Structures
1.
Amino acid sequence: MRQTTAHLLPLLPLSLAAALGLFACAEPKVSLATGPREYVPSDYPQVLKRWTRDESLVQLSELDNKLTVTATFESWDFRWAYVVRYAADYRLTVEQRRELLDRTLHETEADHEFYVALYGTNWRWTDLSRPTSAWIVRLIDDQGNETAPSKIDAIAKPGPLEQRYFPYTSVWRRAFRIRFPRLTGDGRPTVASSARWFGLRFAGAEGNEELRWEVAEPGDRTAALGPGADGR
């Protein structure tokens, strides 16, 4: 009698997922170190990838994608590469580039800012800027810190800047800029200096998902800094 494999079919999705997990590339660790960088315009896609995370919340029982989120943390390192690319695209003068760089790096002193694009099963429920949203977002780390946004700005109609510099932006996704205070009311950092990872948590009645950025050890100078970065 020929042996059938029908009894193995339910296991195939799990086996496939496990196999894909084995071959998936680990996300690069990042460094929150400040200091000068030596980026050139062509470095931007690499830096964007390093500071961007993507996750989907899928309910297997319903085969329903409840929420897909892509977010870029606009860190010191990311902003430096962004300004270099922007200055080249718009042919800024040396002085204009310096002023833009100083201004954008100064913004990191007060806030942690993320560019976020997402979509879900219900368009109205994914508007994070409204109290009727099905989701709340928090800045978290592995030390137990959890921080609510200080500001959520909805980008009603993403333009050429968003399309070019955050290419995962699309007409099918809502786009936001989300800011979190760098310090709590009593002066503690919202992302601990000893944190091994930090991230964004999206939670609601339909489930929750997290986007995480693993933090490099202080002595790891190559984990998240681009060519020529001194890591200071």
2.
Amino acid sequence: MKAFLNYFLGQGTEVEFRNFTLAHFLPILVVAGCIFLIYRNRDKLRDSKWDLRLRYLIAFILIFSEMSYYWRLVAIPELGPNPAEHLPITVCGWAVVFCSYMVIGKNQTLFDISYFWLFSGSIFALITPTVITYTGPARFRYYQFWVEHTAGYIAIFYMIFVHKMRPTFRSMVKSYGALLALALVAYWANDLIGPGANYLFLARPESTPSILDILPPNFALRIVIMVAAISTLFFVTYLPWYIKDKKAKKVPAEV
């Protein structure tokens, strides 16, 4: 049993997960199916006794998935649970925390931040899940990663479809400011800890294949490109709502 747990909770020394395979697409398809079911039953859920229960369940799954990441590190010393290298300074990690409180309290501010962070930042983790390169479907980390990085989208769409929450231009500015604050903390942590620290990928590209490999190693140029890319993604993420509002304003004039 101990040998099984060490294997299941540990990680391999060779590549076990490859991008754009069934192991990559299947979790995304499962989450897409969950979101579709939420959309299809949005009116029933809104006025049912299951609404609060489902929101608590989503929050529990989010928090459990985030905490189990650290529990695993403590359980398997071979993974090197160095606190300096596993500080809670990640967009995905904080989005999980924000989403859990958002679904329980129906908090608009947390929705605003989480919406843009997920669709402009965490989305890259789904495109190239570099952190699970050495932990395939036979490992706990594979499942922990996908639950942590997809449950937030279920929470966001649940609040959009069932409770009719939505972002605004002010939401985008608020979320962007929160991201800049987190980036400053990440930069300070990288500088303080030194080699080995790479919070928010500000210090260097990852050692495993990632969409961020296209960024240059030069720090100044890297930051300029990241700021430009994130700013563009924030705007693109808000664009559907902007178009929807513009169309809504034209309707009375045409009647």
